[in-house]
Amino acid sequence: MAEEYSMEKEVKLMVPITNKSSKKEFNRGAWTAEEDRKLADVIQIHGAKRWKTIAAKAGLNRCGKSCRLRWMNYLRPNIKRGNISDQEEDLILRLHKLLGNRWSLIAGRLPGRTDNEIKNYWNSHLSKKINQKEKQSGSSSTREGSKSKKRRVTEKVNEEVKEEETSNGGHEDSKISTDLDDFFDFSNESPLTLEWVRKFLEMDKSLCEFH
DNA sequence: AACAACCTCAACCGCATCAGA
DNA sequence: GTCTGATGCGGTTGAGGTTGT
């Protein structure tokens, strides 16, 4: 159900929720247009740091964490909303195979996309595709709820990542810099994509070395 | 039309890590 | 070295929408 951002939908979600268990009774739930505006204004003046202070300065009865999340996933400039293109999907699949559930890393390679968006896209669209492939390759499974199905896919992926990590001596960096052929089938790949992947791996490798 | 099952995605939660005192 | 608050991340939840019966 990929769709363009609509203010109408946003307004419909404006239901204030209060948390009985939280000590300070912060506002929770969907953000209102007014809250968005206040948050954006304060960030424009003070910058996107010290979220607790930002929340207070904006006069928002929200915790800093909530403000950060709203900014990172929604209000930040250059956020791309709506359909994920075929190229982007392809990239997500490849990066996920390479990096596992490291959504922020994957998002970092997709300009304008957030980790949350990619994570959601993976859980709702791509995990299904993988499931279908599994079925095609012979493994049969009975009908079941989408959530448990989703969880199992995530668990499976995590197990695979763990296995890969342990087989590489448990070191993440060595996993990333392992021979590309272990991760991709490049037989149909354009030279441009190959070049991009090489640059990507070099960049990550040099970053790891730097740290 | 009415209901149930399923899907999507914004938001929350808990934990790990970082940075400064 | 350790304590504490801030930040970032991945997993999970749940409201609302869509689709199937």
Automatic annotation (TrEMBL):
All copies of domain HTH myb-type, residue ranges: 23-79, 80-130
An annotated Gene Ontology molecular function: transcription cis-regulatory region binding
Region (Disordered): 129-176
Domain Myb-like: 23-75, 76-126
GO BP term, pick one: regulation of DNA-templated transcription
SMART domains, sorted: SANT (SM00717)
GO cellular component: nucleus
Matches recorded under CDD domains: SANT
Compartments in which it is found: Nucleus
PROSITE patterns in UniProt: HTH_MYB, MYB_LIKE
UniProt keyword terms in alphabetical order: DNA-binding, Nucleus, Repeat
Protein name: Uncharacterized protein
